Amino acid sequence: MKMKSFVQDSGPNGTVTKPCFTCAHCSRVVVMHRADQDVGFCMKCMHHTCVECGGSERCVPFEKKIDEYEKRHAARQRLIGALG
Questions:
Q1: Which residues contact 50 (CB under 8 A, 6 or more apart)?
Q2: Fewest C-beta atoms under 10 Å: which of 21, 23, 62, 80?
Q3: Of 81, 83, 40, 33, which Cα lies nearest the Cα of 58?
Q4: % of the chain surpassing 90 pLDDT
């Protein structure tokens, strides 16, 4: 996996730069502490995921969750306006 993002980790031994990525399903930032670290991969959306989301059979990308929330919120606002 080729990393495009990095995080700096400061500790007692100085500052270390580590590669990281954002899980496509929950938007969690995953810091790669080792090159052989386990990560998830969704074959449906073809994106890297954290280990927790990688074990799920469902593919619901984070952006889709946000879109669904916005649609529900807009529908709720229309209902409140109609009752109002």
A1: 23, 25, 26, 28, 30, 39, 40
A2: 80
A3: 40
A4: 33
Considering only residues 3 and 32, tell me which one the structure prediction assigns the higher pLDDT: 32
Q: Which two tokens stand for residue 66?
A: 């946000």
| For residue 34, pLDDT beyond 90 | no
Asked if 39 and 31 count as a contact pair (C-beta separation under 8 A), the reply is: no
Phi, then psi, of 6 in degrees rounded to 5 = -140, 155
State the pTM of this model: 0.67
Give the pLDDT of residue 73.
95
- Report the alpha-carbon distance of residue 80 to residue 49 in Å, rounded: 37
- What lies within 8 Å, CB to CB, of 39 at 6+ separation is 1, 21, 30, 32, 48, 49, 50, 51, 54
pLDDT at 68: 92
